[in-house]
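ZP: hey, is the S-adenosylmethionine complex queued? I don't see it on the tracker
AM: it wasn't, my bad. submitting now with these inputs:
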Amino acid sequence: MPKIKDIPKVDRPREKFLKKGPDSLSKSDLLAILLGSGIKGKNVQKLAQQIISKFGKNFLNINISDLLEISGIGQAKALQIVSAISLIKRFYDENSSTDIIIKNLKDVLTLTYDLRDRRKEYLVCLYLDAKNTLIRKEIISVGLLDKALIHPREIFYPAVELNSANIILVHNHPSGDQTPSKKDTEIVKKISQAGEIMGISIIDFIIISEKGNYSFFQKLKDKNNSLDYVADGLQTTLFELSEIEKPFYEVNIQKIDKSYFHFSKYQNTNTFQLQNRRYLGNKYKLLGFIEDIVSEKCNGIKSFCDIFAGTGVVGERFNKPGIEIISNDFLFSNYICLKTFLGISTNNKNVSDKFDYLNSLKAEQDNYFSEHFGNTYFSLENAKKIGTIREEIDKIAESKEEKYILICSLIYAVDKVANTVGHYDAFRKELDMFQPIKLLPPDINYQNNRNNTIYKEDANILIRKINCDVLYIDPPYNSRQYSDSYHLLENLAEWKKPIVEGKAKKMDRSQIKSSYCLKNATQVFEDLITNAKCKHILLSYNNTGDSKDGRSNARISDRNIMRILKNKGEIEIFEKDYKAFTTGKSNSDGNAERIFYCKVY
Ligand SMILES: C[S@@+](CC[C@H](N)C(=O)[O-])C[C@H]1O[C@@H](n2cnc3c(N)ncnc32)[C@H](O)[C@@H]1O
């Protein structure tokens, strides 16, 4: 047996390490450095080789007594090895509890390296927060994985306790083959469905084996898309991915091929009409489609509730004598306009002179509005004028109704001179909107408004207080908050002059976030439907599919919409290709506009 000093210097572990780095060394060479010396008749390299070949893949699980069985290893050396292993494990474990962000499969594998060599089947759960930071790694089961034995409770109970937003499951196949078994697939299905209902995303289910790994996320994800997980509310879940693969309806879809021409009642350039406003997701061009469904399905209606009213165009279409309109939106700027056009039933004669007065105001001084929004969203002159008019409205309005009418007129006028594409997430680079702002009186049909009620409430609170024949539901579909897009109008309507921040000059909007844009959208939708007291439900919800821009992805899956509505009544789906009536341009995603109609039991 050659002594270590008889081995050529270049082949000695320490020298090799110093010259070529740790990656050039075999496992036994690395262990030899740790051991330092051998014993008589067994040099340190031989001793290290013997240990590595005896324990092989189980090396990280060895204990002192295992090591003491090897001749040449005494207590001191055994302690050295086991301490080194424990030290490494400790660092891994500590890392798992402090700000480890899981970005992709590689990050998961680093955290679960030890599963590869286990002789039994394990199911391990990584609980993550909304930013995909690891909160805790937990072993859920040891032994054969069986759908019948794994209850979602075991996975979701800690998730709720830990306030976890996302979950990744990791499972090992001791057989060495990472291909998912039928049982694995059934478990993934069961757990990801449960996650959808709980509002906790199952991001991935990974199978680890000696030969390789299998990630359900990567398998389902479109190859053109990034395979990284996405943090902070935009993550596609396994459930959504499998939905996209198999679009699913259990009812026939009625494709509507009719073209609708929408003439304004009359074009009066001396007034503002309800629809004369740019608003994301407004249904003005779909009114004919909606009206056709209502007249076919809902006979003799006496009340119509537009619970996510936005501009209010849908409610207005049914605003006829004998029909009570309930119109609601949780944004104050929208409420003011809904109140003006659909809620005021007596002519406020005194207000008419005030438009001329406000238009004639001179605005030379800078003010809150011009300081923050001048030369960006508006020309400086218009911004000064808007601020001056808004200040003056509070002084001259003689009643609440007058105030609503004047602010509503200002909101409509502002939209005409805004240097934007129709919302206030950003302003256009080139400022070219210089025409002077002009207030016009709103065109109000006082007669038809007698029975109407306008609300500014969260839809889920309002639903518990009202009854109606038709409930029209048009919530936000994706993670884009309307309070982000219309912060400026909200600021102008409320006129509390808050601090504004960032390039887009947004105020604090934490109190006006819609749950329909968040992960729990499915739950709030289910709550809305469960509590609805009505005869007919019409739901507008777009099939935005798996868009590359995470913000555009629909929050509630078709499967969940169907499940929830089915509990309430009989469903029919009506589809209209938007392209047919948008001057040849498709809507942003080229998908059809859909209405889910539900005849309530
Ligand atoms: C898709 S838009 C409705 C567009 C409307 N149908 C139209 O034609 O103008 C959704 C509206 O719901 C409002 N909204 C969002 N979440 C809400 C909630 N929880 N309660 C009440 N309104 C909400 C938003 O302010 C937005 O105006």
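AM: back. Residues 279, 281-283, 308-311, 313-314, 328-331, 334, 458-459, 474-476, 482, 514-516 surround S-adenosylmethionine (CB under 6 Å).
ZP: great, adding it to the tracker
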